Amino acid sequence: MKIGVLGSGIVGRVLASAFLNEGHQVMLGTRNISKEEVLKWKNENAGSLLGSFQETAQYGEIIVLAVSGLAVEDAISLAGNEHFFEKIVIDATNPIAAVPPDNGVLKFFTTLEDSLMERIQKILPDAKIVKAFNSVGNAFMYKPKFAAGKPTMFICGNDDKAKKTVTDILTAFGWETEDMGRVEAARAIEPLCILWCIPGFIRNQWGHAFKLLKM
Ligand SMILES: NC(=O)c1ccc[n+]([C@@H]2O[C@H](COP(=O)([O-])OP(=O)(O)OC[C@H]3O[C@@H](n4cnc5c(N)ncnc54)[C@H](OP(=O)(O)O)[C@@H]3O)[C@@H](O)[C@H]2O)c1
């Protein structure tokens, strides 16, 4: 499929490379296609495309949102809301506030009765948004290797078919997937990012992922 990845930070680049590796056609979207790390990524990823946010959203049959949480609304308006119409949108963002963590605990600009994904869904009511990839570090997003087996990716979203497509992608990427229901579940999935980061901030341990153990 044609995948449009919005955001050229480490998450955007890692996920764009992963989709290319799985045989998809990929455009990486950025406000500045001549940035050093973007050109380096392009050289290292044969067959990849670079574009503006608008070109990338237009190109993608599936769109990946991989921009700073604080910049999501700006990025969507640069991309053009109409280019998300009825498309699957994989939302990897977290609503991290621009303030330092408290003893390793990140601060969010959302509350427990709200989530960034719900805000995005309100801006893009016809988009089939699926939360995924937000609860693990970028080093483990593609083909994670843990002695204890496959980790669990928690997803949510209002469209069952879109969640099935994203589950298939996650399976190819080496994950077990747990569907946590509709968009409101992002109120619980987004804060997993806070939990995931604590061992990193307080003990410099960044090599872990969540797994749901079931009977
Ligand atoms: N880092 C991780 O391991 C990790 C893990 C899970 C989830 N996440 C989430 O994934 C998202 C991306 O994280 P990241 O670490 O790759 O990078 P980031 O520093 O959080 O975001 C970088 C991206 O945001 C875009 N951006 C920044 N300001 C903008 C603005 N004013 N308007 C439009 N776009 C703007 C930039 O676009 P340009 O390409 O134009 O520069 C850049 O691509 C975040 O929401 C983060 O919380 C990160």
Mean pLDDT: 98
Number of strands: 8
Biggest β-sheet: strands ordered side by side in the sheet = 3-2-1-4-5-6
Q: What structural class is derived from the secondary structure elements?
A: alpha/beta
Question: Cα-atom Rg, whole angstroms?
Answer: 16 Å
Hetero compounds: NADP nicotinamide-adenine-dinucleotide phosphate
Beta-strand residue percentage:
15-25%
Poorly predicted regions are none
Based on CA inertia axes, which overall geometry fits?
A: globular
Characterization of the model:
With about 220 residues, this protein is an alpha/beta fold. The protein is built from eight helices and eight strands. The protein has helices spanning about 10-20, 35-45, 55-60, 70-80, 115-125, 160-170, 185-190, 190-205; strands spanning about 1-5, 25-30, 50, 60-65, 90, 130, 150-155, 175-180. The strands form two sheets. It has a six-stranded parallel beta sheet, with helices on both faces. A two-stranded parallel ribbon has the order 7-8. Strand 2, helix 2 (about 35-45) and strand 3 (about 50) form a beta-alpha-beta unit. Helix 3 (about 55-60) packs across helix 4 (about 70-80). The protein is globular, with a radius of gyration of 16 Å. The model has no long low-confidence stretch (mean pLDDT about 100). It binds NADP nicotinamide-adenine-dinucleotide phosphate. The site of NADP nicotinamide-adenine-dinucleotide phosphate has 25 residues, from helix 1 and helix 4. NADP nicotinamide-adenine-dinucleotide phosphate (NAP) binds next to helix 1 and helix 4.
